[in-house]
Amino acid sequence: MTKLFPRRRRHRSFRTILMVVLCLCCGWGFAQGIAPVTAQVSPPVVVEPTTVGTVDPVLSRYQRGQTLYLKNCASCHIALPPAVLPRQTWLNLIQDQEHYGAKLPDIRRFDRQQIGRYLRYYSRPLRTDETVPYRVTRARHFKALHPQVKLPRKVTMETCASCHPKADVFNFRAWNAE
Question: What is the enclosing helix (H) or strand (E) of 103?
Fold first, then answer.
Protein backbone atom coordinates (compact mmCIF):
# COMPACT_ATOMS: atom_id res chain seq x y z
CA MET A 1 0.00 0.00 0.00
CA THR A 2 2.77 2.36 0.58
CA LYS A 3 3.70 2.04 -3.04
CA LEU A 4 0.22 2.96 -4.17
CA PHE A 5 0.02 5.98 -1.92
CA PRO A 6 3.53 7.16 -1.22
CA ARG A 7 3.88 9.75 1.47
CA ARG A 8 5.23 12.95 0.24
CA ARG A 9 7.74 14.84 2.30
CA ARG A 10 6.12 18.01 1.15
CA HIS A 11 3.17 17.47 3.50
CA ARG A 12 5.37 16.87 6.52
CA SER A 13 7.43 19.99 5.92
CA PHE A 14 4.23 21.95 5.24
CA ARG A 15 2.84 20.80 8.58
CA THR A 16 6.06 21.73 10.34
CA ILE A 17 6.06 25.22 8.84
CA LEU A 18 2.38 25.62 9.68
CA MET A 19 3.02 24.64 13.31
CA VAL A 20 5.96 27.06 13.60
CA VAL A 21 3.87 29.92 12.17
CA LEU A 22 0.98 29.13 14.53
CA CYS A 23 3.32 28.99 17.53
CA LEU A 24 4.88 32.31 16.56
CA CYS A 25 1.46 33.91 16.11
CA CYS A 26 0.22 32.60 19.44
CA GLY A 27 3.42 33.61 21.21
CA TRP A 28 3.25 37.09 19.70
CA GLY A 29 -0.41 37.40 20.70
CA PHE A 30 0.32 36.39 24.28
CA ALA A 31 3.27 38.74 24.41
CA GLN A 32 1.07 41.63 23.30
CA GLY A 33 -1.41 40.92 26.04
CA ILE A 34 1.19 40.42 28.77
CA ALA A 35 3.76 43.06 27.84
CA PRO A 36 1.95 46.12 29.23
CA VAL A 37 1.49 44.41 32.57
CA THR A 38 5.07 43.21 33.05
CA ALA A 39 7.07 45.83 31.16
CA GLN A 40 9.13 48.21 33.24
CA VAL A 41 8.60 51.65 31.78
CA SER A 42 11.29 54.09 32.78
CA PRO A 43 10.21 57.65 33.43
CA PRO A 44 11.21 60.20 30.79
CA VAL A 45 14.49 61.97 31.37
CA VAL A 46 13.82 65.51 32.50
CA VAL A 47 16.60 68.06 32.46
CA GLU A 48 16.08 70.27 35.45
CA PRO A 49 17.27 73.82 35.04
CA THR A 50 19.64 74.95 37.70
CA THR A 51 18.53 77.48 40.27
CA VAL A 52 20.60 80.04 38.40
CA GLY A 53 18.55 82.02 35.89
CA THR A 54 20.38 80.87 32.79
CA VAL A 55 18.74 81.08 29.42
CA ASP A 56 19.15 77.37 28.72
CA PRO A 57 18.81 74.55 31.24
CA VAL A 58 22.20 73.10 32.10
CA LEU A 59 22.62 69.35 31.83
CA SER A 60 23.66 67.68 35.06
CA ARG A 61 27.05 66.65 33.67
CA TYR A 62 27.90 70.36 33.10
CA GLN A 63 26.43 71.81 36.29
CA ARG A 64 29.69 71.38 38.22
CA GLY A 65 31.49 73.34 35.50
CA GLN A 66 28.86 76.06 35.64
CA THR A 67 29.16 76.29 39.41
CA LEU A 68 32.95 76.56 39.20
CA TYR A 69 32.67 79.13 36.41
CA LEU A 70 30.35 81.28 38.50
CA LYS A 71 32.48 80.86 41.63
CA ASN A 72 35.74 81.77 39.91
CA CYS A 73 34.65 84.31 37.29
CA ALA A 74 31.72 86.08 38.93
CA SER A 75 33.83 86.91 41.96
CA CYS A 76 35.56 89.69 39.96
CA HIS A 77 32.99 90.69 37.34
CA ILE A 78 29.61 89.71 35.93
CA ALA A 79 29.80 86.21 34.53
CA LEU A 80 28.65 86.22 30.93
CA PRO A 81 26.56 83.42 29.47
CA PRO A 82 28.82 81.16 27.41
CA ALA A 83 26.83 81.84 24.23
CA VAL A 84 27.97 85.47 24.17
CA LEU A 85 31.56 84.65 23.20
CA PRO A 86 32.77 81.90 20.85
CA ARG A 87 34.44 78.72 22.10
CA GLN A 88 37.93 79.77 21.11
CA THR A 89 37.68 82.97 23.16
CA TRP A 90 36.60 81.04 26.23
CA LEU A 91 39.33 78.43 25.82
CA ASN A 92 41.97 81.13 25.48
CA LEU A 93 40.63 83.02 28.49
CA ILE A 94 40.62 80.06 30.87
CA GLN A 95 44.10 78.96 29.75
CA ASP A 96 45.66 82.38 30.29
CA GLN A 97 46.69 83.40 33.82
CA GLU A 98 46.92 87.05 32.75
CA HIS A 99 43.34 88.15 32.29
CA TYR A 100 42.74 91.65 30.93
CA GLY A 101 45.77 92.94 32.79
CA ALA A 102 45.04 91.15 36.07
CA LYS A 103 46.75 88.08 37.48
CA LEU A 104 44.18 85.37 38.10
CA PRO A 105 44.26 83.11 41.13
CA ASP A 106 45.39 79.61 40.30
CA ILE A 107 42.50 77.29 39.47
CA ARG A 108 43.07 73.59 39.94
CA ARG A 109 43.56 71.72 36.67
CA PHE A 110 40.50 69.50 37.19
CA ASP A 111 38.31 72.52 37.97
CA ARG A 112 39.63 74.34 34.90
CA GLN A 113 38.76 71.28 32.79
CA GLN A 114 35.22 71.24 34.22
CA ILE A 115 34.82 74.94 33.45
CA GLY A 116 36.20 74.36 29.95
CA ARG A 117 33.76 71.52 29.27
CA TYR A 118 30.84 73.70 30.37
CA LEU A 119 31.97 76.68 28.29
CA ARG A 120 32.70 74.54 25.22
CA TYR A 121 29.31 72.89 25.31
CA TYR A 122 27.26 76.06 25.82
CA SER A 123 29.24 78.45 23.65
CA ARG A 124 29.07 78.72 19.88
CA PRO A 125 31.68 77.89 17.27
CA LEU A 126 33.92 80.50 15.70
CA ARG A 127 33.60 80.98 11.97
CA THR A 128 36.69 80.24 9.93
CA ASP A 129 36.67 83.76 8.44
CA GLU A 130 36.50 85.67 11.75
CA THR A 131 39.13 86.54 14.32
CA VAL A 132 38.88 85.56 17.95
CA PRO A 133 37.09 88.42 19.75
CA TYR A 134 38.20 89.29 23.27
CA ARG A 135 35.69 92.10 23.76
CA VAL A 136 31.98 91.46 24.08
CA THR A 137 30.98 94.12 21.56
CA ARG A 138 33.22 92.59 18.89
CA ALA A 139 31.62 89.17 19.18
CA ARG A 140 29.22 88.17 16.43
CA HIS A 141 27.36 86.18 19.07
CA PHE A 142 26.69 89.24 21.20
CA LYS A 143 25.33 91.10 18.18
CA ALA A 144 23.11 88.13 17.29
CA LEU A 145 21.72 87.99 20.82
CA HIS A 146 21.01 91.74 20.80
CA PRO A 147 19.47 92.42 17.38
CA GLN A 148 18.34 96.00 16.83
CA VAL A 149 18.97 96.89 20.47
CA LYS A 150 19.92 100.50 21.09
CA LEU A 151 22.50 100.18 23.84
CA PRO A 152 22.29 103.04 26.38
CA ARG A 153 26.04 103.38 26.85
CA LYS A 154 29.32 101.68 26.02
CA VAL A 155 29.03 97.96 26.67
CA THR A 156 31.25 96.41 29.30
CA MET A 157 30.58 93.45 31.50
CA GLU A 158 29.67 95.81 34.33
CA THR A 159 27.14 97.74 32.22
CA CYS A 160 25.16 94.60 31.39
CA ALA A 161 23.22 95.28 34.58
CA SER A 162 21.76 98.46 33.08
CA CYS A 163 19.57 96.28 30.83
CA HIS A 164 19.75 93.00 32.77
CA PRO A 165 19.15 93.99 36.42
CA LYS A 166 19.82 90.46 37.71
CA ALA A 167 23.00 89.92 35.70
CA ASP A 168 25.02 89.88 38.92
CA VAL A 169 23.28 86.59 39.83
CA PHE A 170 23.69 85.19 36.29
CA ASN A 171 20.08 85.82 35.38
CA PHE A 172 19.96 87.34 31.92
CA ARG A 173 16.30 86.51 31.38
CA ALA A 174 15.17 89.49 33.41
CA TRP A 175 15.72 92.78 31.59
CA ASN A 176 14.57 96.38 31.61
CA ALA A 177 12.39 97.41 28.70
CA GLU A 178 13.81 100.96 28.76
Answer: strand 102-103
Closest CA to 139 of 85, 80, 79: 85
Q: Is residue 151 situated within a structural domain? A: yes
Residue type, 113: Q
Task: List the chain residues with pLDDT less than 70.
Answer: 1-12, 27-56, 100, 157-158, 176-178
Residue 121 lies in a domain: yes
Decide if 49 is inside a domain: no
Quote the pTM value. 0.62
Give the domain range for residue 128.
Answer: 60-169
The H-or-E segment that residue 99 falls in is strand 98-99
Give the whole-angstrom CA distance, residue 166 versus residue 175.
8
118 falls within a domain: yes
Q: How many domains does the chain have?
A: 1
> In the beta sheet, which residues pair with residue 103?
98
Across the chain, how many H-helices and E-strands are there?
5, 2
Alpha-carbon distance values, 3 to 6, 7, 8, 11, 92 (Å): 5, 9, 11, 17, 92
In the prediction, which pLDDT does 114 show? 92
